[in-house]
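Morning F.,

Quick status update on the modeling queue. The single chain you submitted on Monday has been processed. Sequence for confirmation:
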Amino acid sequence: MFSGIVETKGTVVRIEREGSNYGFWIESSIAKDAYIDQSIAHNGVCLTIVKIENNQYLVTAIHETILKTNLSSWTVSYEVNLERSLMATSRIDGHFVQGHVDTTAMCVKVENADGSWYFHFSIAKEHSKYIVQKGSICINGVSLTVVVADEGHFSVAIIPYTYEHTNFCHLVSGDEVNIEFDILGKYIVSYMDKINTNKVG
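Structure tokens below.
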């Protein structure tokens, strides 16, 4: 379980392929404290450390993960948002994030607001029901509040600290991002869908 508060960034230094799986070697300051089998959110994707060498560690992404995320677009030197899992004593400064990416969205516009930034995204219309104005959403592992939510489109605002300390500073129109919808919202939508289905039946 995560909170969507990015601790630091890491850099992809090597990519390995084995069958349909991708192995990503990540260089980061948290590698020195990492351990085998540890779960870390990478751009919001929960991946498990399988090997550690000095200030680098290896995580593996299986085919299902590659299909649901933007990991296939990662290249050497790509910067990744990192967050280690919550401790029982941690304050939850963001919102509950599982590290289970639901889908991807496309950045369509970055708007400089003289001290903050608005990021606009397009998303498949069938996913719009999970996004509500002023609600929580996790983008590339960052817990954010939705500013505008329309069918097939939503936007968020970024403060300078978040812009500088995450890979949002590199995000441009045309880039794909990982999206995890708020877990509470997903449960509610699922429950209501089942009720409506039973009523129809």
